[in-house]
Amino acid sequence: QAVDALKQLYQEFPDLYNSSIVCSFMPDVVYKMRQADKNVVTALTHRPWQLSHLGDGTPRFSSCWKHYLYVVMDVILDWSLHSFLWRLCGVSAFLIQKNFVSQ
């Protein structure tokens, strides 16, 4: 739904191509946006431990096995973002969430 709405906005307001960027934490949104319109500038945003922890750093799950499963998934996601996912999604920029820039 987001991709369709964004595509419609870009069609209604062509000036957006020169003055905006589509950013998302979700690689599938960025990928689908690039598939819908290759002229849109896209960026993939990353927050370390986004699957296993909430934004304030507390664990997302109270179950021990579920928490560690998502920690492993976070490590895989981090590796894939830095090695191939950015290229697969066709992103123009790779962003990091503000709280992790100067810790």
Word description of this protein:
The protein has 103 residues and is mainly alpha-helical. It has one domain (2-98). It is built from four helices and three strands. Strands 1-2-3 form a three-stranded parallel beta sheet, with helices on one face. Helix 4 (64-89) links the parallel strand 2 (42-46) and strand 3. The protein starts with a helix and ends in a 7-residue tail after the last strand. The mean pLDDT is 90. One of its GO terms (molecular function) is glycerophosphodiester phosphodiesterase activity. It comes from Dicrurus megarhynchus. One of its GO terms (biological process) is N-acylethanolamine metabolic process. This is GDE1 phosphodiesterase.
